[in-house]
Amino acid sequence: MTMSLRKSHNSQANKLQAKKQLGSFLNSGSGKRFNYPSLVLLSDVETSKLEPLKDVLLHCCAHYLTSRRQNGFALNPVANFHLRNGAELYRLNWMGDTSPRGLQNSLGIMVNYRYRLEKVLENSVHYTLDKRLAIHENVRSLL
C-alpha cells in the first residue's frame, strides 16, 4: 500500500513538474507557435525540446482521445473509427511517429488500438449505443 501511495504521489508530482515545464516552454518564446488549448505544435520544434514535456503531453493526448467528443462520439476520426469497430484504446507511444507529418499531427505520439475478438462486439455496442469508450489501464493511468 505504501509503495502504491508513493508511486501515486510521485506521479502527481511529475505531472505538476511537467505542467510547470510546459508553462516555461510557452513563456520562453520556443512555444510561440504552440496553442495550448488545442495542443497544436508544428514540426519545426526539435523532438529533444519535447522530452521534458513528455508526461504532460501524454496526459493531454489521453484526455483528448477519451474526453473530446462530437455528438457523444470521439472527436478524433481515427479513434472514432476504431472504437466504433470494437477496439479498445490500448496504448500511447511516446515518439512512436517522428516523421515530419507525425510530429506535426500528434507531436510524435502514436496510438495503439487493440481488438480482442471476445470483446469486439460488446465494445462496439457500448460505444455505438451508450457512447462508452473501451479504455485500457495503460491509457487510464495517464489521465
From TrEMBL:
<dbReference type="InterPro" id="IPR038917">
    <property type="entry name" value="Malonyl_CoA_deC"/>
</dbReference>
<dbReference type="InterPro" id="IPR042303">
    <property type="entry name" value="Malonyl_CoA_deC_C_sf"/>
</dbReference>
<dbReference type="Pfam" id="PF05292">
    <property type="entry name" value="MCD"/>
</dbReference>
<protein>
    <recommendedName>
        <fullName>Malonyl-CoA decarboxylase C-terminal domain-containing protein</fullName>
    </recommendedName>
</protein>
<feature type="domain" description="Malonyl-CoA decarboxylase C-terminal">
    <location>
        <begin position="47"/>
        <end position="115"/>
    </location>
</feature>
<dbReference type="GO" id="GO:0006085">
    <property type="term" value="P:acetyl-CoA biosynthetic process"/>
</dbReference>
<dbReference type="GO" id="GO:0006633">
    <property type="term" value="P:fatty acid biosynthetic process"/>
</dbReference>
<dbReference type="GO" id="GO:0050080">
    <property type="term" value="F:malonyl-CoA decarboxylase activity"/>
</dbReference>
<dbReference type="GO" id="GO:2001294">
    <property type="term" value="P:malonyl-CoA catabolic process"/>
</dbReference>
<dbReference type="GO" id="GO:0005759">
    <property type="term" value="C:mitochondrial matrix"/>
</dbReference>
<dbReference type="InterPro" id="IPR007956">
    <property type="entry name" value="Malonyl_CoA_deC_C"/>
</dbReference>
<dbReference type="GO" id="GO:0005782">
    <property type="term" value="C:peroxisomal matrix"/>
</dbReference>
